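Worked example

This section walks through a single chain of length 158. The input is the sequence exactly as stored; nothing has been trimmed or padded.
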Amino acid sequence: MLIKKKVKILRIDKINYYLNIAETVAQRGTCLKRNYGSVIIKNDELIASGFSGSPRGLPNCIDLGCCNKDLHNEGSGSYTFCKSVHSEMNSIISASRKDMIGSTLYLVGVDYKTKELNTTAESCNICKKLIINAGIEKVIIRRTPTEHEIQYVKDWEL
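Given that input, the structure is written out below as tokens.
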């Protein structure tokens, strides 16, 4: 008689699974400061992904070897001279709105120079407006390699 043993298989939880995908997407980023990666998920299906980088067909900062913001002495938090399209924006423009309604956006930020996790990653106000209009329900942001913060879009104050 064959005796079967129950073996407990350790699996990564879904939230960290999707955050790991977003973190991998961030590796394609071309910003010399911070690279973000994001994925939009609905019903356990990947709808779209995006990373920080220059608009299609334009030179990237990593290819130019300089940050346009630095050339214009533009401080943090201002985007007048920033060439990058944010990861959230790139995710949203790659998906149809009907697929995004009620979805979740997973977001991970990584420092370009140190390759360390940006534990204070946050969507900017422009991205938040796009997320709202896209119909995305919540944003989950990686804070540590295993911890995250859930932000419900309905609770945002702009």
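What to look for: The chain has a mean pLDDT of 93.
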